[in-house]
Amino acid sequence: MAETTQTVIGKTITIKGDIQGDEPLTIEGKVEGKIQLDSTIHVKESGVVNADISSRSITIEGAVSGNITATEKVEILPAGIMVGDIKAPRVVINDGALLKGQVEMEVTDEKIRAKRETLPKAPVPPAAPRTFSSIEE
């Protein structure tokens, strides 16, 4: 069984510069620059990030300022603060979370058609009976 390595930027650590890699990253401290990972990023409640982020999945409990692109999912937890734009196929904004920016969910026509096929068909209401009136002079 392969061992999973996870990098943690601790509460007292500040990193200024670019971060690249392919293992999970947990941010409890401060990061300024650019983050590009092929894995997951979790910004803990004590974490403060001022960076554009590109990753597979991003979870925000702390504060993030910058644009985010995720290939799978972005989730902002109740304590999370996000200032910037989000681009991802799935976005979850929990009750209490703060977001200032735009959200773009990557939706193709094929995904729309597939989703429509799974929705229940709305029943067609019966037609109202016809009534005729006559006008007397």
Detail the poorly predicted runs. none
Q: Count all strands and give the number.
A: 13
- Terminal CA distance reads 94 Å
**Shape, please?**
elongated
Q: How much helicity do the residues have?
A: under 10%
Number of domains: 1
Number of distinct helices: 1
Largest sheet: 13 strands, parallel
C-alpha-based Rg, rounded: 24 Å
Structural class: mainly beta
Q: Calculate the mean pLDDT score and round it.
A: 89
Q: What sequence of helices (H) and strands (E) makes up the elements?
A: EEEEEEEEEEEEEH
Can you offer a commentary on this structure?
The chain has 137 residues and is mostly beta strands. The protein has one domain (7-118). It has one helix at residues 109-118, and strands spanning 7-9, 14-21, 25-27, 30-37, 40-43, 48-60, 63-65, 68-76, 81-83, 86-88, 90-93, 98-100, 103-105. Strands 1, 2, 3, 4, 5, 6, 7, 8, 9, 10, 11, 12 and 13 form a 13-stranded parallel sheet that branches. It is elongated, with a radius of gyration of 24 Å. The mean pLDDT is 89.
